[in-house]
Amino acid sequence: MEEKVLITDIQRFSVNDGPGFRTNVYLKGCMMRCHWCHNPETIDSHPELYWKRRLCVQCGVCLEACPRDAILPPIPPEETQQEECTYHKIVRDRCDLCMKCVDACLYDALEIVGKPMTVEQILDEVEEDRPFYDNSGGGMTLTGGEPTAHADFAGRLLEQAKTRGLHVCMDTNGCVDWEILKGLIEHVDIVLFDLKHIDPAEHKKRTGVTNELIIENLGLLSETGKDIWVRIPVVPGYNDSIEFHTSAADLLASMGKGIVRIDLLPFHNWCQDKYGWLGIDWPLQEIESMDPAFLEIPADIYRSKGFETTIGGSGFESGDEALSS
Ligand code: SF4
Ligand code: SF4
Question: Considering only CA atoms, which of 18, 111, 29 is closest in space to residue 314?
Answer without folding.
Answer: 18
